[in-house]
Design brief:
By secondary structure, the protein is of the alpha/beta class. The protein contains twelve helices and 14 strands. Strands 3-4-5-6-9-10-11-12-13-14 form a ten-stranded mixed sheet.
Length: 342
Amino acid sequence: MTNYPLLGMTLSELQQLVRDKGMPVFTAKQIATWLYDKKVKSIDEMTNLSIKNREQLKKDYYVGYNGPSSCVKSIDGTIKYLYDIAENQSVESVYIPDQDRATLCISSQVGCKMNCKFCMTGKQGFSANLTSNQILNQIYSLPERDKLTNIVMMGMGEPLDNLDEVLKALEILTSSYGNGWSPKRITLSTVGLRKGLQRFIESSDCHLAISLHSPFTSQRAALMPAEKGMPFTEMFELLKKYDFSKQRRLSFEYIVFNNVNDSLIHAKELVKILKGLDCRVNLIRFHAIPNVDLDGASMEKMVEFRDYLTSHGVFTTIRSSRGEDIFAACGMLSTMNKKDKQ
């Protein structure tokens, strides 16, 4: 008989579960408290449930923790964790400590369908969507979980391509019955898929980061095939319908490639196309990956690019690079050859 994990179930799903089991409805809230507040690892630890109800639960369910199978630590303190999902399937997440902040970059898929030219996850191809349990497990089974201040869904996979499970995980993280985190502590990163972008904006208050990488349609399409599915011009028209001027932040990720998208022409066009959007731009250094004919721009060029955007009213930062020596930096996550790397 197949048993199912409780971790990753929303309160409404737990309420349906206890009804099906003939338990009082309030039992669902008790279970949620044990899972998401007290973070127990076994049903037997849920001591305010009757022994009969605990035994009933154990027939079909278990808590659902699955610790990392291995980890590797960078010279800068970044730690990359490997989680086994199924036979020959695994994902990576990255823990990034930084003074009084500690950020966890989590995955939503095994591999990715988007096939961005500069991303190792895309080169791996797509294997599976993660369940809400497998998404949240990267947080709950993290050895440093109690130190976390922020979560970014920027690991392996395209979150909007697995939106049902992603939204369940976000609900649990931000709801009063779950972690009770402010949505301001969570950022979802996406290429901008037509089928999911509007739904995410209207269903969640978490920050939104969109991979842009070029202000020119044809060039972005060459770097990111997803541009053909939802052109950024169409995406911008959608984004302008929403208010990002208050607590929720809209940002654009821009990897700066040497002699590709780092010219003054690109900077001027960025200023032009972002007009009317309350947003910021994060410039990211490119981390070389095998068999890709792209090079990162120099820091001097990135500073010039940032200063031009800032001086023309676009708030722009240069994101610090972390974990490159262990293939944990932006665009470097892949479990294609996990046994060789971990």
